[in-house]
Amino acid sequence: MKAVVLYEHGQMDKLIYEENFADPVCGPGDVIVGVKATSLNYHDLFTRNGMPGITLKLPIICGLDVAGEIIEAGAEVKGWSIGDAVLIDPRNRVEGGLVGETIHGGLAEYCRAPQHQLVKIPDGVSFEQAASLPVAYGTAHRMMVTRGQVDADDKVLVLGASGGVGTGAVLIAKIFGAEVVACGSTEAKLDALTKIGADHVINYKETDFVKEIWNLYDKPHRREYAGGVTVVVNFTGGETWVQSMRCLRRGGRLLTCGATESYNPPTDLRYVWSFEFDIRGSNSWEREDLTALLDYLSEGRMEVPIAGPFPLSRAAEALRLIEDREVIGKVIVTP
Ligand SMILES: NC(=O)c1ccc[n+]([C@@H]2O[C@H](COP(=O)([O-])OP(=O)(O)OC[C@H]3O[C@@H](n4cnc5c(N)ncnc54)[C@H](OP(=O)(O)O)[C@@H]3O)[C@@H](O)[C@H]2O)c1
After folding, report:
1. Ligand 1 centroid vs 25 CA: distance in angstroms?
2. What pLDDT was estimated at residue 316?
3. How many helices and strands in the chain, by DSSP H and E?
4. Protein residue with its CA nearest to atom 13 in ligand 1
5. Residue nearest ligand 1's atom 10 by CA
6. What's the 288 CA to ligand 1 centre distance in angstroms?
C-alpha cells in the first residue's frame, strides 16, 4: 500500500512516502479500514523528532486520527460490516498503545484496528470532519467539559487558540454558552477565530494580553469575586504561565493539557493562594468525548476549521504547517 513511513527520527525528510509498504493483516477481531482522512497533530512532531526518555519502535506510520470505511472484517467481528463509516479511537484501551505512535496510523491507504476501537460516524458527517476530532478535540472536550466544567456563566481566555486543541476549546466553550477571548499570533488567525465564534480576539504578539483582559473585564480583585476571566486555557506553558494567572478572577480555573513552549515555566504561588485558583490538568479523552463531538457535528452545532486536504504524498509538507505555526484548525490528509 501507499504509506508515509518513519524509519528514523529527524526532520521533515524522515517522513518517507512509499508505494509498496506491506498491507496490514486482518486478525480475527480486527477490521481493515480504507483510510479516507487522517488529521495531523503537534504530537506527530514529537513522534517524528523523537522524545527524550521515550523509545519508539520504528518503523511507524504516523497519523493518530483515522476515519474511513471498513473494507475487511475478521471472523470474530460483530456489529460492524464492510462499508461502515468509522472513526478509529486512537487509544487501544485493551492491549495499550496509541495509533500513529506505537501502532501503524492513518498516513496510509489502509489501517488495521481491533473492533473495540471503532466508533460509528453518523450519517452526514464527512470523513475530514470526523478525522479532525480524536486527539485535539477529544482532549479539548475532556478539558473544557469534564475537568473544566465550563458553562454559560464563564468568561474563558484561550491561548494558542488557532491550533487543533485551541479551536476545539473555543468551539466547545461556545457550545456551552461561555464568552470566549481567543489569542493568536497573526491577523489571519484572529480573523479565523472571530469567524468560528470567538467574542473577542487578542494578537498577543502585538499587545500584552494581560492588559487586554483587564481592559475588557477589569483587573481581578483579590478580595472580591470580580474582574478578570473565570477560566484560562493554557497548554503553552513557558512565559505565558504566570501571565495567565494575572488574568484570572478569584476562584478561577487554570486548565492545561500540554506545554508546547516549555513544561517547567516559572510560577508565582502568591497568585495561587491569593486568588484561590484551581489548576486543573487534563489528559487525553474518553470514548464519550468522541461520541459527543460526533453528535455536535451531525447536529450542525460545530464545524471544524480545516487546512488542506493534502494528498498522502504531501503529508510531510502538511506537518510543516504545524511546525511553523501556520495552521488554523486541523490539518487534513486524505490518503
Ligand atoms: N494531554 C493530551 O492528551 C494532549 C492531547 C493533544 C494535544 N496536547 C498538547 O496540546 C498542545 C497543542 O497541540 P495541538 O495539536 O493543538 O498543536 P497546534 O495545532 O500546533 O496548536 C498549537 C498552537 O499553540 C500556539 N503556540 C504558542 N506557543 C507555541 C510554540 N512555542 N510552538 C508552537 N505553537 C505555539 C500556536 O498558535 P500561535 O502561533 O497563534 O500562538 C499554535 O497554533 C501541544 O502541546 C500538545 O502536545 C496534549
Report:
1. 34
2. 95
3. 10, 16
4. 42
5. 258
6. 23
Residue 104, helix vs strand vs coil: coil
Find the 57 Cα to ligand 1 centroid distance in Å.
25
User: Residues with Cβ within 6 A of ligand 1?
Assistant: 41-43, 135-136, 139, 160, 162-166, 184-185, 189, 235-236, 257-261, 283-284, 322, 325, 327
Around Cβ 242, how many Cβ atoms within 10 Å?
15
Would you say residue 62 has pLDDT above 90? yes
Atom of ligand 1 nearest to the CA of 261: 31
pTM, two decimals, is: 0.97
| Model confidence band, residue 52 (pLDDT cutoffs 50, 70, 90) | confident
**Segment 123-181, tens digit of pLDDT:** 999 999 999 999 999 999 999 999 999 999 999 999 999 999 999 999 999 999 999 99
Separation CA 29–CA 333 (nearest Å): 27
Q: Are strands 15-18 and 118-120 parallel, antiparallel or unpaired?
A: unpaired
How many whole angstroms separate alpha carbon 304 and alpha carbon 28? Answer: 35
Domains annotated for the chain, with CATH where assigned, are 3-132+304-333 (3.90.180.10), 136-281 (3.90.180.10)
Give the SS3 label for residue 309. Answer: strand
Q: Confidence class of residue 222 from pLDDT cuts 50, 70 and 90? A: confident
Q: What's the CA-to-centroid distance between 194 and ligand 1, angstroms?
A: 19
